Amino acid sequence: MIDNKIKYTQLIKTEAKRLGFLSCGISKAHFLEEEAPRLENWLNKNMNGQMQYMENHFDKRLDPTKLIEGSKSVVSLLLNYYPSESQQDKTAPKISKYAYGTDYHFIIKDKLKLLLNFLQEEIGDVHGRAFVDSAPVLDKAWAAKSGLGWIGKHSNLLTQQVGSFYFIAELIIDLDLEYDLPTTDHCGTCTACIDACPTEAITEPYVVDGSKCISYFTIELKENIPTEFKGKFDDWMFGCDVCQDVCPWNRFSKPHKEPLFNPHPELLSMTKKDWEEITEDTFKEVFRKSAVKRTKFAGLQRNIKFLKD
């Protein structure tokens, strides 16, 4: 049985690499004891803002065995999205790098299905589910637990060799495997992300008030953006990369190799004027398969207007 554990673990990691994942780590599926009080405290302070879904399924969020019956292992995977080019007009409203190309949910879901199918073909009776930040799973906590990095002061997962510009996904399966050990924290005394956050959303090291984050305002918030944040958006119209851009570990970021993450040809060349005059037709064309669709045309217009006024 021990031999099988090693064999299956190796099988998963080799196939994950072949599918283009940056890295793969595995943890035992169990209750996240340390994260429970942290999550409860964060919710009690209303740091989720209008993201009510964060309050749902509290137990399942902390225990994958309650989410998937019979689950034994959480396979965490990272997929690089760091682009080789960025927006050309430095005065134009900015889009978070993760949203340049095709919506990552589809791309990663497809890769995870291939991985699960592969396991079923190679091993036989393996059951589980794929997750790409669309269900109550604490992605970063599981990735850190399985040694893929540590959670930085900006609350993103950080890895020494590659920084933080990657997506995190999971396969929760009913298979006993060899489990990885967590890595150590390498933020040290650095406070670059805390000092640089335009809206002071990082209230203390390792704690981000989601209701003050530019990503929250530009994507999640459906009503008007509070006027007290006027002039503090650093030109971000969808998402925000400031805390990642200033992080010293991201000096090691290398461009991704996933063609589907390449931006629409027009996206990077659009000027400030182009964005301010964007039509619904252009929006539909440029963001046809993009995560930016989530904010809808009216939402993006609201964000651009907020930067301009």
TrEMBL record:
Residues reported to bind tRNA: 222
**Record localization:** Cytoplasm
Q: Which reaction does it catalyse?
A: epoxyqueuosine(34) in tRNA + AH2 = queuosine(34) in tRNA + A + H2O
What is the protein's given name?
Epoxyqueuosine reductase
Q: How does it assemble?
A: Monomer.
Q: What does this protein do?
A: Catalyzes the conversion of epoxyqueuosine (oQ) to queuosine (Q), which is a hypermodified base found in the wobble positions of tRNA(Asp), tRNA(Asn), tRNA(His) and tRNA(Tyr).
Binding-site positions, [4Fe-4S] cluster 2:
197, 213, 240, 243
Q: Name a GO molecular-function annotation.
A: epoxyqueuosine reductase activity
What's the encoding gene here? queG
Q: Which Pfam families match?
A: Fer4_16, QueG_DUF1730
Q: Look up the record and name the pathway of this protein.
A: tRNA modification; tRNA-queuosine biosynthesis
**What EC number(s) has UniProt assigned to this enzyme?**
1.17.99.6
Which sites bind cob(II)alamin?
Answer: 61, 133, 157, 168, 215, 240-241
Q: Which organism is it from?
A: Flavivirga jejuensis
Which catalytic residues are annotated? 133 (proton donor)
